[in-house]
């Protein structure tokens, strides 16, 4: 009989994460993304003590009330955990962890990529090339926006927001930010604090969201988009739930927004197909953390947290 702790890998993960899970644990590794019901059935059947979870494992209060007694920890390999009822899970005696540091740099990289592509009309340029570009454009045609010298407004100045600020400053942008509280000067690194979202929006030539969803509700309403300066640019790598997508589409169609860059949507993967008709929108399929290095690090972080809890130590990244 194995003396290793039994765990469940409830989502498809990179090969390096599978190899480590199987080396260090008695790991059950189905080659698919499990639902909450499927995962908890396996927990009950195999005496599983820890779950490396995924977005389909949407733990509700009802699930938490019926947790199998073997379960001790649910480890999210992402920074976000709004797909589960954390309070009910913890009340049931199960530790919840996340991976707040692993995806910071790659998410900020992709946010900067969205910003650059939105400002420089990359969707339209790519379409021209794929159509077999054969006609020169006039001197005043297909013009984008110069990034350097523009003012970037960041909403949410946590790890990813600060990493985005550093990248933007490297491109010669002025950075303003709104956060629940002002950062210490050493963390601001030249970024300027703005007391309220309402005060930030009219000053943000480019606005980038870097705060968790769930608690914030719909932040970018029709009124909020109207407060951005005409010709502004909107970037979202945070949560699709933060945005009124009807209002965003109208702002892009009307020209009030010059462009937008999105990695997240309200309904994923079944995103609103009206977005495909907007040439001034640059999109990616929620892939900000999708590099070999980062996905491995995210999985390893979840395994580190599981190992800590099952060995009787404190979780490294408790929620």
From TrEMBL:
InterPro entries xref list: D-isomer_2-hydroxyacid_DH (IPR050223), D-isomer_2_OHA_DH_cat_dom (IPR006139), D-isomer_DH_CS (IPR029753), D-isomer_DH_CS1 (IPR029752), D-isomer_DH_NAD-bd (IPR006140), NAD(P)-bd_dom_sf (IPR036291)
* Annotated ranges, domain D-isomer specific 2-hydroxyacid dehydrogenase catalytic: 7-319
The signal peptide, as residue positions, is none
* Gene3D superfamilies listed in its UniProt record: NAD(P)-binding Rossmann-like Domain
- Family recorded in the similarity comment: Belongs to the D-isomer specific 2-hydroxyacid dehydrogenase family.
Record carries keyword Oxidoreductase: yes
Which organism encodes this protein?
A: Rhodovarius crocodyli
Name under which the protein is recorded: D-glycerate dehydrogenase
Q: What is the lineage of its organism?
A: Bacteria, Pseudomonadati, Pseudomonadota, Alphaproteobacteria, Acetobacterales
Q: Which GO terms describe its molecular function?
A: glyoxylate reductase (NADPH) activity; hydroxypyruvate reductase [NAD(P)H] activity; NAD binding
Q: Which SUPFAM superfamilies match?
A: Formate/glycerate dehydrogenase catalytic domain-like, NAD(P)-binding Rossmann-fold domains
Which residue ranges does the record assign to the D-isomer specific 2-hydroxyacid dehydrogenase NAD-binding domain? 112-288
Q: Which GO terms describe its cellular component?
A: cytosol
Q: Which UniProt keywords apply?
A: NAD, Oxidoreductase
């Amino acid at each position: 009989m194995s003396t290793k702790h039994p765990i469940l890998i409830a989502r498809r993960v990179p090969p390096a994460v599978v190899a480590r899970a199987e080396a260090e644990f008695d790991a059950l590794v189905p080659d698919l993304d499990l639902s909450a019901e499927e995962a908890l059935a396996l927990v009950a059947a195999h005496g599983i003590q820890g779950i490396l979870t995924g977005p389909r494992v949407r733990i509700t209060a009802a699930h938490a009330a019926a947790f199998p007694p073997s379960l001790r920890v649910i480890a999210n390999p992402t920074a976000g955990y709004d797909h589960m009822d954390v309070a009910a899970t913890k009340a049931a005696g199960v530790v919840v962890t996340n991976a707040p540091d692993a995806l910071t740099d790659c998410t900020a990289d992709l946010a900067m990529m969205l910003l650059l592509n939105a400002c420089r009309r990359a969707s339209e340029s790519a379409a021209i090339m794929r159509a077999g570009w054969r006609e020169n454009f006039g001197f005043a045609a297909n013009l984008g926006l110069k990034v350097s010298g523009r003012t970037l407004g960041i909403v949410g100045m946590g790890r990813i927001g600060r990493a985005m600020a550093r990248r933007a400053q490297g491109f010669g942008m002025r950075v303003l930010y709104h956060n629940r509280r002002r950062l210490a000067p050493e963390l601001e690194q030249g970024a300027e604090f703005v007391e309220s979202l309402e005060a930030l929006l009219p000053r943000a030539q480019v606005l980038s969201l870097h705060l968790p969803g769930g608690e914030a509700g719909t932040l970018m309403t029709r009124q909020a988009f109207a407060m951005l300066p005409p010709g502004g640019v909107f970037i979202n790598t945070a949560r699709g739930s933060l945005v009124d997508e009807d209002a965003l589409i109208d702002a892009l169609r009307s020209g009030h927004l010059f462009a937008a860059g999105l990695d997240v949507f309200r309904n994923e993967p079944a995103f609103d197909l009206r977005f495909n008709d907007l040439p001034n929108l640059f999109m990616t399929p929620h892939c900000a953390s999708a590099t070999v290095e980062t996905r491995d690090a995210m999985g390893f972080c979840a395994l580190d947290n599981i190992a800590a809890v099952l060995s009787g130590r404190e979780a490294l990244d408790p929620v």
